[in-house]
Amino acid sequence: MGASVASTTQVELPSGIPLQRGDDAWITGRSAAALVLLAALLCAVLYAARKLRRDGPGRLGGLARCDRPLLKVVVSQRLSAHSTLHVIDYEGRRLLIADGSQGATCLIDEPHAAAAAQPGSANDVA
Length: 126
Prior knowledge:
Strand order of the largest sheet: 1-2-3-4
Order of helices and strands: HEEEEH
Strand content: 25-35%
Structural class: alpha+beta
Radius of gyration: 36 Å
Shape: rod-shaped
Helix content: 10-25%
Number of helices: 2
């Protein structure tokens, strides 16, 4: 059995081909800066995605949040194990909602007392 021995020979390149030999550093200054920039960009995208998921679409960072809520539960009263009565203020109206095993039903829908008491409203008697 013959064993072949690998020989290491030095190959010379033509002088027209530039060859730069230096230390075999894995990371250089430019690639380090690129990695830091990429990591910062990834963090910004993840932060924005989490804010969108938490605040909902169109409300990034709370920019579109209103000062007062449109819907306010004034009081809720459980009537039985499967039914509840809710009084809700919604856009100047007061709603009485019955919620049960068959679904929800609006029992009363009238203007809120504060809105009805304003001068010039239709409820004023001359």
